[in-house]
Structures are given as C-alpha cells and as structure tokens.
C-alpha cells in the first residue's frame, strides 16, 4: 500500500479525518485491525526513511559550507576591484564631456546648414523642373496621353507646393488650374462612356487620373449625373401613366356621348400608393446592381458613391415628390379630389372653408410614409457597410419628402381633431312644453354620456397617428393639440349643461351660480317658480332622475380622461426611452465611428438600428427641438405632472358644475314649497272665539312641509338606480351606496337650511301660529330621523321654543335645560313671540 504524503503538508491537516479516510479506502475483505497495523508500519517505515534522508542531506550541506564561504570572499574582492575601475572610467568621461559638448554644438550647426542647403538645392531643382514642365506640358496634352498628363500636372502641383508663394511662378499656378480643368474636361466624356458601358478597367484608370489631380469630386458628379437619368425616367413613369389614363378617360367620355349605348368601361387613375412600391422596387434593384458593380470598379469609393447617387436623386425629385404626396392625400376624399388639392392646400387656405381636413387625409399620408419606410429598411441593409454619417444622410434624404408634412403635423392633427369634436352630437337641450322636459333632459344626457368614449377613441387614434407618422418626434405638438381639443370638448359640455338648467327649471336656483350671472330679480324668480309649479309630479321625478344621470356623465368623463392621460403618459414614457437610446446612441457612434469599423459586426448592427430611427435622425439634426422634447418627456417621470394640465383642471371644474346643477335640481322642489313660508298668515293668526272647547290649531303638519317630507323620503328610491349604475362599473357597491347616501344627506341638509332660513324670516308669531309651526317642525324632524340624520341644534331649539307656551318661554330660557338650546335662536323666537327677557 503506497502512502500519499501530500495531505501532511497542508496547514489544515486533521489526523482523525486522514485515518478515517484511510480506513474507508481499505479492501472490504481486509479486517480493520490488520489494515491499521499495516498502516502504522508504513507510516513508521516512511518516517525512518525521511529521518535518514534528512540526516544524509544535512551532512552533505555541512561539507559544502566552507567552499561557499571561500567563493563569497572571492566575489566580494572582485566587486571592490570593479567599483574602482568604474570610478576611474567615470572620471575620464566627465573630463571628455566638457570638450565634446562644444564639438557636438558645432556639428549641429553644420548639420542645420547642410539641411538648408539640401532643401535649397531641392527647391532649385523643383523650380527648374517646374519651368521645364511648364514648357513641355502642352506637348504632353497634344500627345493625348491622359495618364502622362495627369502625372505632369501632379508634378507641377508638387513643385509649386515646394517653391511656395513665389511671384515668379504666379502665372504657372494659374496655368496649372486651367490645365487641370482642361484635363478634367478631357476625362469626362471617356468616364461617361466607361460608366454607361460598364468598362471596369477604363473607369479605374480614369478614376486614377482624377485622383492624381485632386478632382475626385468630378468623379462623384459624373457618376451621379450618368446614373440619375434612368432613375428619373422611372420617376417620370408615374406622370406618363397619368397622362395616358387621362387621354383614355377623355376618349371614353367622347365615345360615351357619341354611342347609342352608354356601356363603356372607365379607366381608373393610377394612385400614388399603388405605384410607389413598384418604383421603390425598381430603384432598389438598380441600386443593388450599381453597388455590386462599384465594389468591383471602385473598391475604395463604392460605400460613398452609391449613397451619394441616392441622396442627389431624392433631392432632385424632392419638390415633385412633395407635390405628388399632397395630391395623393387629397385623392382619398371626394371633396378634395374634385378640386385636385391636398393637405397643404387646405392648410394654406387655398380651399373653400367648408372643406375640412379629415382623418383619411392623414391616414393616406401615413400609408405612403410606411411604404417609404419599407424602402428605407432595404436601403439600410444594402448600405450597411457605409459610414454611419453617410447612412444617416441617406435615410434623411429618403424621408425628405415628408419633412414638410411633419413640420406641419401639429396643425394637421389639431384641424382633424377639431373637426371630429365638432361632429360629435352635443346639441344643447331645448325647452319644450309641459310633459316633454324629462324626455328632452334624458336624451341630452344620453348624448353627453355617449360622446365621451367617442372622444377618447378619437384622441387615442391621434396618439397612434403621431407615433406612426413622426415616430414621436412631434409629441410636444401632439400634447398641445390634445390639451386644446379637450378644452374645446369640455367647453361644449359646459354649454350643454347651461341649456340643461333651463330644461330643469333651475335658472334661478343656483346659489351664487347662475342666479348671480343672469341677474334675476325677485319678480322673475317668482314667475319661474310658478312656471315650475305647473309641472306634474311625474315629470318632476323624471327631471330629477335625468339630472341624477348627469352625475354618471361627470364620473365617466373624470374616469375616462384619467385613464387616457395615464395611457398617454405610459406611451410617452416608452417613447422617451426609445428616442433617448436612438438619439444619444447615434451621436455616440458618430463620434466613435472608428471603433465601429474596427470591432466587428456586433456594434455595427446597433449603429444601424440607431441610425435607422427616423425620429432620431430628425432630432439629431434639430438639437433645440430635441432638447425641448426630452425636457417634456423627462417631466413625465414626476407622478404629479399632468400631460394635459389645462384639460385636467377643466374636467374638475366640469364635475363641480355638474354637482351644482344636480344639487339645484334636487333642491328645487324644496325651494318651491318653502317659497314665502315666512309670510304665511297662519303664523300671525289669532284664536277665534267659540262656545266650544276646540283646538286652536291643526294637529297635522301643513301641506308645504308634508310635501317636502314625502320628497325627502322618496329621494333614496330615486338615488338607488344611480347607485346601481355606478356599482356596475369599476366602483365597488359600498362606494356607490356611500355616494348615493352622501347626496341624500346633502339634499336633506340643504332642505333643513332653507327651512330654518324661512323660520328666521318670520316677523311675528302668535300662540296659535307657534303651536302649528311646532307640529311642522316636529314632522320634519321625524323625517330627518327616518333618514338617519341628526336633527340640527337650531331646528331643535325652534321646536322647543315654539312648542313651549308663551308665558313659560322666559322661564325655559332661565332653567337648566337652556344649556341644550341655541341661545341666538331662542332669543330670536322670543322676539317673534313678543316675550321680553328683561
């Protein structure tokens, strides 16, 4: 059995663990005692071997110590000797340094003079060569050897740069420029032929000539000029088809009038949306062929030559492209198609005012933009090897025809939304005859409630259009438009609410509201009250029920606008993140384009994605707009920020107006019944003399207070449908019940306050009137208790003071129970009943 001594050298060696491990490694048939004995024997033998080896090695080391000591002494003597030798050498070098420094300085001056003389000699040679070249250049041109002529001009350019600004060679410099233009003109016809007929070698030689004379720009211009012609022909094919179709249409019209049968097949006009994909396909195929040919002919320049061709082509057809897009957007709507006009014409006011911008106009524009987007992605893939700046310039050129429309996007979207909101059916309520107000109110409320989801859908569609067309780069204009349109819509709702007040018969009832605005005097208010009194009880309740439904309108508007604003914030937040990555990623990659070229395809793919984002391209070229947009998107991170600030405030104001109207409607019947209660003759009536002992007052409450009580007790039944309608939505049933109870308490409190206001207006109260009024107050108190409402202390004081006999009233105020009374109210009752407290 071999022993592994490695574990014994470990600092964390554990003897017990080692023994247990050795025991576990024994053969199953060996006994444990025998295994331990063998293990002990091996350890002992190994230790003896180690001890013997250590003793042997120690003895050998002791024998080597004297020899090592002698070697150390010898090395030390050699080091001392070497130190003395080096010291002597250093002293000699110091002495030589003083004399050699002067020699080196002199040699440096001589070398400078030599270099100047050589430069002068070379300059003289260049001057002589320049003179010779200038005299022989015409012969070179006469020979027709263009490469030799290019070399000659390049040498002349080199000599001129060496000579510098010497007056004697000013004429030569002008001559060189003329000669370079001359050679350039000689190259152009041959270059045109080589490019047109795909002559690779000839094109390469001519490129070399232009490069030699510094005229690479001429190569770009000529290449673009030659290849733009077939592309323009593809572009003009659309006009050709349009003219052909127009002639065919005119011919059909002529045949239709001349023929006895009117059955003729009409020829449809070619639409831009159906023609543009085929144009892009042919253009892409042409560019792919040019890309492959240029890779062979101009391997150093194809990455910029072909994109330059596309950029110049889009610039050349840009005005025509914009015009075609404009007409294409007008063709989708019959009104604008009849005038052969488009979006830009409507915006400029060059159209009748009756013709408005419709969503179809912008949808047609987005369709064309999407078609261009497909072409742009293909171009991005084709030009993926080009420099990032070149690729971005190319993408910008491809989308250039849409730039004018994007700049006017805010006006377009605002006009579309305004027209759509104006088309929403929000007719105000019209005052009808008795019996029809409830129906009119219900229909108006229904139109209001149905209009809210319609408007929200319209606004959401606007957000989608903004993302689809501008990529979000016009999000700031969109927000302004949405805010203004929401204000327009809510203003329409407010106007409708004003018309509802007349239908509900509460023009005069608004506490501090319409009453002040309309300036109704007491006589007009009385006439309005009498008019309302003619309304039947059934119609009164239909008006109440219709008014309660207005609360659902306010609730729907509040919830829907809140949800839409949350949707808008989430959309803009995602947009801000994507735009930030695209814009700043593109800027970073432009600054580090050398890293992109050196580090492989991984980073190249990211750069291409960033550069392709059309919104990012627009924002990179418009830093001020980008800063404004990103500041707005950054504010969205604050939960307190409102994307539609003015609309949010107006929604809250609308809800308050609705609550005021509903309260006025619910309290109007109470207001009618309590009208002039303080002037009822019963309060000042005197007890009639009779031979019989009869009650001096009615033991029943008067009709005005019983009608109020019945109304308040019936009100929960009217609020129940409202609670059910609210609970069927997102609100819980408990919250809906609380909402209904809150309104019931609000009306009951208002009725109590109006009643107490009338009581305070009573000037004189007899005992008979006091007893009758105490019955009325007790009835109303019982109604409040039935509604689970506490009886106000003022009303309880009125009840106590009026139910107390006049001769006991003074003692009541002086008793201990007076602490439970409202003293100002008690004093007022004493004044009414002519009780002196002195």
Please give the largest β-sheet.
none
The proportion of residues forming helix, as a percent range, comes to over 70%
Unreliably modeled segments: 257-268, 509-534, 592-611
Report the end-to-end length measured between terminal Cα atoms.
129 Å
Estimated radius of gyration: 51 Å
Give the helix/strand class: mainly alpha
Number of structurally distinct domains: 4
**Mean pLDDT over the residues:** 79
Beta content comes to under 5%
Shape: flat
In short:
This protein has helices at residues 15-24, 32-143, 146-163, 170-196, 200-212, 216-258, 272-297, 302-316, 318-331, 334-339, 343-347, 359-382, 388-398, 403-407, 409-422, 437-470, 475-504, 514-518, 522-533, 537-591, 593-598, 601-612, 614-620, 623-635, 645-673, 703-727, 733-760, 767-786, 793-803, 806-814, 823-832.
Itemize the secondary structure elements and their pairings.
Elements: H1 15-24, H2 32-143, H3 146-163, H4 170-196, H5 200-212, H6 216-258, H7 272-297, H8 302-316, H9 318-331, H10 334-339, H11 343-347, H12 359-382, H13 388-398, H14 403-407, H15 409-422, H16 437-470, H17 475-504, H18 514-518, H19 522-533, H20 537-591, H21 593-598, H22 601-612, H23 614-620, H24 623-635, H25 645-673, H26 703-727, H27 733-760, H28 767-786, H29 793-803, H30 806-814, H31 823-832
Helix pairs in contact: 2-3, 3-4, 3-5, 4-5, 4-6, 6-7, 6-8, 7-8, 7-12, 8-13, 9-12, 13-22, 15-16, 15-17, 16-17, 16-20, 17-25, 20-22, 20-23, 20-25, 20-26, 25-27, 26-27, 26-28, 28-29, 29-31
